[in-house]
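Severity: low
Component: inverse-folding endpoint
Summary: output formatting inconsistent between runs
Steps to reproduce: submit the following structure tokens with default settings.
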């Protein structure tokens, strides 16, 4: 990501315009199911995004709301493209970063939950998927038309956790020697 500071004003507006162009190009590739091309285009957009410095909460306040919103959307879109390529870890990383840019974006939480569910089952992954889907349901931006999908995904994660589909197989005890 670019180290440049995009403060309120002309620079931020110019960056948003560039992001919107790249997002549109990436969306065309994604809709054509050309996920690798979509990832490449969204990655060009991600490289333009200002860094979010964990130690500097002030950096978020210097960014315009529209820039934060578009950054989250682009990361969510790249997350979806990674899921199309069955790259759950990369999809999860983008979804989590999208939450950092805009925690009100329901798709950021949703895609995080889906990425956890796409991974090999593990206890902590189901727990985190549940937390992601619950966070999705709390987002005021969640459309009513998507609520049932989120509830079903939450129920699937809860089922996977409850039924022990996350349990690791016990190692073979055949070669254990008592001392």
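Observed output (run 2 of 3):
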């Amino acid at each position: 990501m670019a180290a440049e500071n995009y403060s309120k004003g002309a620079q931020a507006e110019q960056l948003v315009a560039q992001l919107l162009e790249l997002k549109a190009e990436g969306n065309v590739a994604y809709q054509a199911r050309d996920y690798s091309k979509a990832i490449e285009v969204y990655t060009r957009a991600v490289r333009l995004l200002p860094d979010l410095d964990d130690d500097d909460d002030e950096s978020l306040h210097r960014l315009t709301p529209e820039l934060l919103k578009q950054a989250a959307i682009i990361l969510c879109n790249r997350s979806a493209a990674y899921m199309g390529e069955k790259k759950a870890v990369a999809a999860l990383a983008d979804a989590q970063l999208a939450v950092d840019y805009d925690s009100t974006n329901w798709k950021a939480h949703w895609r995080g939950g889906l990425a956890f569910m796409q991974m090999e089952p593990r206890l902590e992954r189901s727990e985190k998927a549940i937390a992601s889907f619950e966070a999705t349901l709390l987002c005021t931006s969640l459309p009513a038309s998507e609520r049932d999908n989120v509830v079903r995904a939450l129920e699937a994660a809860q089922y996977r956790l409850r039924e022990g589909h996350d349990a690791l197989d016990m190692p073979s005890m055949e070669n254990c020697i008592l001392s």
